[in-house]
Structures are given as structure tokens and as C-alpha cells.
Amino acid sequence: MAKVLEGPGMGLMKKWGIHVPNYVVVTSAEELAKLGQVNDWLKRSKLVVKAHEAMGSRFKLGLVKVGLDLDGAVSAVKEMVGRQVGSITVSQVIVSEMIPHKEEYYCAVKSVREGNEILVANCGGIEVESNWDRVKRLPVEVGQQPALEALEKVVKEAGFTGPLVKRMADFAGKLFACFDNEDAQYLEVNPVVARESDGELVALDAVTLLDADAKFRHPDWNFQFAAEFGRAYTKNELDIMAIDSKIKGSVKFIEIPGGDTAMLPAGGGASVYYSDAVVARGGKLANYAEYSGDPPDWAVEALTEKVCGLPGIKNIIVGGAIANFTDVKKTFGGIINGFRKAKADGKLKGVKIWVRRGGPREKEGLDAMRALRDEGFDIEVFDRYTPLTDIVDKALAGK
Amino acid sequence: MSILANKDTRVVIQGGQAGVNAARRMAEFCYLIKRPLNVEAFVYPPDAGKTNEIPYGSGLIAVPVYATIAEATKHHPTINTSLVYIGADRAMKAGLEALDDPHIHLVSMITEGVPEKDAKLLGAHARKLGKVFNGPSSIGIISAGACRLGVIGGAFDNLVLSKLYREGSFGVITKSGGLSNEIIWICSQFADGITTAIGIGGDAYPGTDYVTYLEMFENDPQTKAVVIVGEMGGDLEERAAEWYGAKKRRIKLIGVVSGFCQESLPKGMKFGHAGAKEGMKGEGSARSKSEALQRAGAIVPPTFGALGPAIKEVYQELLKSGQVKEVVEPASLPKLPKTVEEAMKADEVIVTPLIRTTISDDRGDEPCYDGYPASELINKGYEIPHVIGLLWDKRLISKQEAEIIKRIIMLSADHGPCVSGAYATILAACAGIGLSQAVAAGLIMIGPRFGGAVTDAGRWFKYAVDNKMSVDEFLAYMKKNVGPVPGIGHRVKSLRNPDKRVKELVAYVKSLKINTPCLDFALQVEQVTAAKKDNLILNVDGTMAAVLVDLGFPIDSLNGFFILSRTIGLIGHWVDQKRQDSRLIRLFDYLVNYAAPKRREVPPLK
């Protein structure tokens, strides 16, 4: 799943006929001031200013300001751009018009195993969060489109009446069209509001998750995907993502500040069991990492260097199940080169390395790892006869 | 018995190189269990009409490649299964093509990164047709002793170590490809091994879920217990638990779920497979899944490490109750023949080399000339003449010798467009012939009358010097036994119109005050011959030959100096014609003396 920020998310909804407030994404106060000279609505409307970054709790951090005029918005932008919050620097700000409204509603489309589900509620904002039972669902089978009657029925069930039934059904239908045609995995509009001026339903805030795997058939996706876990990707993470995007197989890397146990396991499945084992033993993960699908040795080497560069680590877990087709000797060759480079750079002091692996050319690979001991590495090497996560137990035995 | 894949499974593989690699792994398994190869055909439009060679034992089996599934099943009507190794952008089309073929009942998709929408559509389509769609992102399916689909099971040694050559009692279903092998291994170590192991893929919505396969295992009497390896995210494990708890089941269910680490990670931080995403309200967490399985009566070891002992306990109970019997292992198993390289490494064979080289070695990270790495030669200031010395005479020549060779090459690099070699190259270039062939046409001209006398000149001058002949003795010997002296005489140059190249070279070599017996002798010969006839001078071939013999180069290499240097000129002529976009040329008839008989009548054929 790939999260898309509000700006491009609203752009996609607009493309599919959903009313969204006027908005601009700016990178400086000067830019907004200039835009104000040519866009009438910026002068006429009350404005909302929000930091346009992948971060939670923007309200609490003072990164959302409402009810401003253009001058107020310009100074709010000035204040926000460049602010440092954790690992994120605010570099973009989204400025949108406030839509005067009385009622708030909720509408979402989510992917489920049997197809998709349309969710509607006649309350919105935080009210829907605490009244989840008021959300009504319309299941749509794989490959099918929702019928208008079915949409109107679920909208009525949710408590909409009068002319709003048709409007909400129409809104939900458009949101589904956007979801289906844009390969979305989750679309949520909260709140949907009825514009006082003309009664039209407008999407005020959107959560947009797209299927990154479908990018090949969406050449117009010209935006970057945002990190999904409440912070921006770090430079090291972006470096590995750049490698991952151009190789056969995969390499993955996520940093977790404050940990002491570094992870360098193979396999999307085994890597999580290794992480579980560290946590179960009372260890603190310094990162998540994974390589699989017989990646080139240079990619594994680059991943190894990142892992070795993690601050304050005491153990590195080079775990892995019995590979099907990943060449153990070749991928271990990459890890060994990474270790050597890290050591030459003065890293790995007092760090103990734990290895467990099986698969094609396992003997050669494990022998090469064992030989690192002669180069002064503190390394313990185990083969398939040692159960998968036992190296974690051994590494953290002192805890 | 087994489920999904058995001894009657016949396979078509949709895909290119990745599919061929899988077929090789499958052939290894077929060989191990002494069954014929189960891959009948490939479907890959770019290679349609060709065959893919799949090693089987020590032989090769040619498996045909078709453009469509319909063609493949028409020619191989026993095909009932397809494996999809087609890229994510074309995977859905390939999967639908296979599902829609009436012969095919199981489609397993290996492709990773298939859009979720496509995967759901494929799954729904298969269910509608009453077929099985497995994957995407599936490592494959393996039934011990019967059938392997894909690379699941790993290398040949692992197949043997994990006892996949014969049936056990445990079914395996995993999302992770790597862990499928690990569980198969654990089942063989802590119990009697597996019946069938299935990789369902780590995507959010696999085409077929645990429940469908659990139902199949429940109906397979050989399978006594099933191990499922789950992950956080989605609700597949909950559904499996629901199925297991719904009524009394024959099979024992053992399950582990990964993702407990999420509980102690910063909020919102997620990783693992695409499907490993926790829902909004804790649904789909590792804990809720484990608890659901436990509540349904499944055995849920607290950690992955406890899985082996848990499996062992189940196996011991099965033994005790007589549901399974101790396995008797076969006395011997086929061994995969080694490749020549492997056998040599193990000191098991001696191979007589086909060729022998004493000058160069390319097996490291760069070529070595007579043992010296090329880059080191460059970095230490050596030049092209030194490389010639190493490759032609296996010695590192001196700076002085290098300078002489450099001058020889520079002097003979070209001699205008009229000489045989250049003319032939130009003719070829004008006829539109490519560089290497046109240069070869020029080089073909080098022979006894043009440029090719260096070796012979060197040979006879050396013969004279070695045998301490006088000039008169030498000329008499040559007249009697050989003919004209190679290296003496020129078509246009003469005493009055001397060849400046010769004068230059001789003057330079003489200025070095080195011992040059051959050159000295050749110059003496010239004095006698030129006195007899004006153009019987020591020509450039003869001069080069004498100098090179004095430097110690082997006689057989001498023509090489002319060939090498003149190649520079020939390439120049070809490029020159190309640059000018020269037109095809032919001789004018007035340049030909037509001495053939006059036109006459052809007599009747007898």
C-alpha cells in the first residue's frame, strides 16, 4: 500500500467528478502571496493552512491553522515551512478554502477479499469514530460496479433523507469509480460536507492509499508516495528503496531509533519471525531489514553497510530460513564485503554477528562467513541444524 | 496421497528464463523420484517454435515452446496445470488465459507485485469456474514423492535432506516462500516429513486461502496434521481458525503467526509482506490471530522456535495411536550427476584440455599478459610494444627495443591507396562491406609479393649469418635453392630513388650502437645486388626483418609486424571511404586487355 498526500489525493478525486475545495500546495510564503494575486478564491475565502507532509497529530503540533485570510495564511506558511518535527522538515504546505457547512458525513471505499466495500455514515469528523455502528456497508463483488438503487438503499439505511439521498449516493458512486479506476486500496473522505452556498457535497479531507504495484498502468501518477508510518523516510531508507526499485529480488530497510539489535535477515516471512524473537527475548530492534528473491550481491552489500552504520548496536542477526533459490554463497559474499567495508571505516567495534542460514550453496556461504573470524570479526555461524531463531536466543541470552 | 499436485500432474509453464529455471528444479525432483519430467510445454510468445533444453540426470530434454495455452494443450492434451512466470503487468492476462483453458484445473502464479485488483479478479474467476488459482507471489507447491511445481524445496541436496523423495504425514501451508522450505525441513527432522506443502503467497488477497486447502487436507487420508505459518494482516488465519473450530476435524492443526513485534514498535510502523498490514482496530494482529487459532483447538507454539518440538509431540502421538508407522527409508537414492566443474573440484575426474596457452590468462578480474596484469603494465608506464613483446615473444622488452618496434609500426602503418592491401579494402568499402570483412580483404593481399616477405627475409638472412656465409656464397645458395632473395628489390624504389623509410630505420638502429649482425649482412647484400640492378635494394620488409631478427623475435612472428601496422592503415581507408559515402566502383573496360577468344557459336551439347 502506498499513501498519497492530500494534494495529489484530492487531485485524483477531482478527476473523478468529486467536488473538492480549491487548494494550492506551496513551498514558500512568497509563492502563496503571488498565487493570491491571480487566484480570486484565495482573496475571497477563509483559508485552511496545513503542513503537507506525512505526519500525524498536525493539529497538536500547530501545523494546521483555520479561518485565516490571505495575509494570515501567508504568515502561517512562513511559520510552517522549514519547521523541524522529529526527522521531518516541513517543506510543503497545502492551503485550501474553508467550505461553510452545517452537517458532516462520512464516506469510504475499502478492499476486502470478496471484492470491495462502500462505507457511508450520516455523521462525520470525530463523531463517526465514536459511533462506528452508524457506518453502513455496501459490498461490491469483484469486477462489479455498484447499482444506483443499491447505493441509494445503503445511503437511506445510514439515515440520509430527502434530496441528500440522491446526492450522497452520487458521491459514493463517484468515490467508488475513483477507487476502482485508480487502483486504490483505501479511500476515505471524512468529513463529507454539504456546501452552504449550493448544497453540493464536498470532500473536505481525504485519506488515499493506492496500490503501488499498479503504477505501471497509471503514467499520470506523477506524485511521490508518502511514508506510511507517521514520519518521512530517512536518507538511508530512501537509498535502499532506490536500489530495491531497480534490482531483481528485493532489499528492504527501516530504521528504528534507540534499538541495540540490528537485523539483516533473509526473506519477507522469516525476517518478521526474527523480529518477533528479538522482542520476545526483551531485545530492542534497531531496524527492520530483509533481502530476498536472489538479489545481486552489490545490493546486499549496500544493505549491510546501512545495517552496520546503525548507532549503538551490540548484535547483528544475519538470519534466514532454508532458501529455495537465493544463492547463499553469492548473497553472503555481498554481506561479507559490507562487513569488511564497515570494519575498515571503524564500525562494528564491540558488535557481535550471528549467522544462521540454509539453501543453495549453503556450505560455501557459511564457510566464508566462518572465515571472517580469522579477520578479527566477532562472529558465530550456525547451519540448518540450529533452529531458525535460536541465534536470537543465544545473542540475547545475557538479557 | 497428496493434494493439488500428484503423479498425474502435467505442467505448462508460462514465461521465459524464470520459467526455464523452475523447470530445471522440477526436473531435478522428477529425477530424484524416478519419474519422467512433468513439464510438457512452455508458453512464451517471443520464443514460440523453439525448444527449451532442460537437464534431466545427465541428459537434456527438449521441451517445446508455444505462443498460446491453446496450442500447448492441443499438442499436449494431458496438461492440467499451469505455472505463471510472466511479469506483473501481463500476469493477469496470462492467468486468465490458463484458467479459461478447459484442460487446466490448477494455475499457480509465481509473479510478485501483481496489482491487488488483478489478483482478486483471478481468484474470483477461478472460483466461478470451479478451478484453483494459487498465488500470486507463490513459491510453488510440492507433494513429497510425487510432484514439484516451481522452485519450492530448493536445491537438490535439500530435497534429499528434507526427505521429499517419499511421503510423510504433515501438510504445510505458508504465505512466505522461504519459510515453506524451513517448515518442510522441520517436518522431516521432528516428524516423518510432508505430504504436500503449498506456498499461497504473501499478498493481501491470495487467490486461494488456508480454508480451501485445509478442506482438501481433511479429505486426504495420508495427511494427519497440517502446519500453517501465518502473518499479521488480513483475516485468513481467523478464517482458518473458524473452519477448524466449526466441527470435529480429522486433521490436527498446528499454527504460528508472525508480527508480535508490531506491539512494541512505534505506532504505525509496519513491515513484511504486502499482506502483512494490521487493520484499524487491532483486527489482524498476530496476537488476535494466535488467540483465534488457539480458541479453535489448534496447537499454537508460543514462538517459531517452539514449532519443531510441537510437531514432534504431534508425531509421537500419531505413532502411539498407530495412525502412522515408522518410516523405512529407501536403501539408495539417485544422485544428481555432477557437472564437469563440480567433479573436477571434488578431484573425481581428469579432463584432457582441448587447447593449451602459454601467453595469456583471462580468468581473474582482468587479463594477464604472460602473467602481468594489464592495468599494472599501464600504470607502470609500459606501452603497446611491450604488450607485443609479451604476447609474441613472452618477454618484457627493453625501452630501447620498444622504441625500435614503435618506429617499425609507425613506418609501415600505411602506404597510400594504390598498394594491393589498401586497394582491396577500398574496393570492399565501396561495395558496402563492413569493417572487419573489408580489412580482412586487405589483409588477404599480404603475401609473397606484398608485405609478406618479412618472415622469409628474416629466415634467410639469419640462415646466412648463422652459417657464417659470405655475400657471394649466400647469393649463390639462394639462386640455386630458393630464387630471388626475399627483402631485396622494389617495384618503384631504386638506388636513385631510395626508400626513405629504410634509410630512417637503418640510421636509427645504427645510431644505437647495438650488435646487429643480420642488418649488417643485409646491407652488404644490398651493395652487391643493387650494383647489378638499380632497383635490387634492401626494401622495407627486408630491413624490418633483419632488425627484428637482431632483436631476437621469433622468425614466425615477423610478418605479424607488417600485418599489425598495416591494419592501422586499412582501418583508416575503410573509415575514410565510409565518411565520404563512396559509391560502388568497377573497372572501366578500357583498363582491361580482353585477350579472350572472339565471340563464337556454341556447339550442340553431346
Q: Could you describe the 3D structure shown?
A:
The complex is a heterodimer of chains A (399) and B (606). Chain A has 399 residues and is an alpha+beta fold. Chain A contains 13 helices and 19 strands. In chain A, the strands form five sheets. In chain A, strands 1, 8, 9, 10, 11, 12 and 13 form a seven-stranded antiparallel sheet that branches. In chain A, strand 17, helix 11 and strand 18 form a beta-alpha-beta unit. Chain A is elongated, with a radius of gyration of 26 Å. Chain A starts with a strand and ends with a helix. In chain A, 47% of the residues are buried. The model of chain A has no long low-confidence stretch (mean pLDDT 93). By secondary structure, chain B is α/β, with parallel strands linked by helices. In chain B, 42% of the residues lie in helices and 12% in strands. Chain B contains 22 helices and 16 strands. Chain B is elongated and about 120 Å long. Chains A and B meet through helix 9 and strand 16 of A and helix 4 and helix 6 of B.
Write the layout of secondary structure elements.
The complex is a heterodimer of chains A (399) and B (606).
Chain A: E1 2-4, H1 6-15, E2 23-26, H2 29-38, H3 40-44, E3 47-51, E4 64-68, H4 70-80, E5 84-85, E6 88-89, E7 93-97, E8 104-112, E9 115-121, H5 126-130, E10 136-141, H6 148-157, H7 163-181, E11 184-194, E12 201-203, E13 206-210, H8 235-244, E14 250-255, E15 261-263, H9 270-280, E16 287-292, H10 297-308, E17 315-318, H11 328-344, E18 352-356, H12 362-370, E19 379-382, H13 390-395
Parallel strand pairs in A: 15-17, 17-18, 18-19
Antiparallel strand pairs in A: 1-13, 2-7, 3-4, 3-7, 5-6, 8-9, 8-11, 9-10, 11-12, 11-13, 14-16
Helix pairs in contact in A: 2-4, 6-7, 8-10, 10-11, 11-12
Chain B: E1 11-14, H1 17-32, E2 39-43, E3 51-56, E4 59-66, H2 69-75, E5 81-84, H3 91-99, E6 106-109, H4 116-129, E7 132-134, E8 140-143, E9 147-150, H5 156-161, E10 170-174, H6 177-190, E11 194-199, H7 210-218, E12 225-231, H8 236-246, E13 252-258, H9 286-295, H10 307-320, H11 340-345, E14 360-361, E15 368-369, E16 372-373, H12 374-379, H13 384-393, H14 399-412, H15 420-430, H16 435-444, H17 454-466, H18 471-481, H19 500-511, H20 517-532, H21 540-551, H22 558-580
